[in-house]
Amino acid sequence: MVNSHEYYMKFALREAEAARDRNEIPVGAVVVCNGRIIARAHNLTETLTDVTAHAEMQVITAAANVLGGKYLTGCTLYVTVEPCVMCAGALGWSQVGAVVYGASDDKRGFRKFAPEALHPKTVVTGGVMKEECAALMKEFFKKKR
Amino acid sequence: MVNSHEYYMKFALREAEAARDRNEIPVGAVVVCNGRIIARAHNLTETLTDVTAHAEMQVITAAANVLGGKYLTGCTLYVTVEPCVMCAGALGWSQVGAVVYGASDDKRGFRKFAPEALHPKTVVTGGVMKEECAALMKEFFKKKR
After folding, report:
1. Do B9 and B80 touch, CB atoms closer than 8 A?
2. Mean pLDDT, consecutive 10-residue segments, chain B of 145 residues?
3. Rounded to a whole number, what is the distance in Å from the CA of A6 to chain B's nearest CA?
4. A50 with B68: Cβ contact below 8 A
5. ipTM value
6. How far apart are the C-alpha atoms of A135 and B12, rounded to whole Å?
7. Could you tell me the pTM of the whole model?
8. Catalytic residue among B15, B24, B56, B82
């Protein structure tokens, strides 16, 4: 079963909404392997008092746990916002097959600050459902002000 | 109590030796706050089947847990090898006061691949006990071949 990027991004968006509902910066991620979502996570930095608890970090750990191996070569990671340097570094170590993100992050995104962080074979697609992904972030920070 | 960088790096080296003894790439780290070691960790990527389980990632989480807050502003992180992109990104989020590392890592180190990953106020010192730190790595990879 092969679904569209939008199909899987909607699940990542649901995770981002779950983060927002916990008063966390609304970022969500899922890992897809052979058409199946094998792991999902959302940002939990406040809940866990841990700067490393980004959605991507948790979903990498969870997916490896499901697969029983460290590498996510055959998997695609969907995330609502462009990964930061930390998460891109982790994705690089994971050798994930593909990364699909929604909204760009010009202030913290890896493309500007660590453009070579991912594995050279990792296929990157940005901008999938970017309006919906960005809207969640904008609403969150507007309420915070 | 203020001790020398070498004093604390020896504890990080002990952690690196503990990693080696588990057949893990020998990298160790400690976090020091007000002269006291509040957290220590070593690389556990193989044991945990998790590419994110670098010494620095674990010690950041552990130190935040001890302090009860996400930020390590008043702390110094000692690590036997120059942090990678992922760990430097995490250290950036933590706003750690200082990073002291031993051996350089020209292949994976953040200085080459994400030179702006750390917080601008973080003080970085490299090369502390670098021979001892590098020797552990060299011996490990020599045996692996």
Report:
1. yes
2. 87 98 98 97 98 98 97 98 98 98 97 97 98 98 88
3. 28
4. no
5. 0.96
6. 44
7. 0.97
8. B56
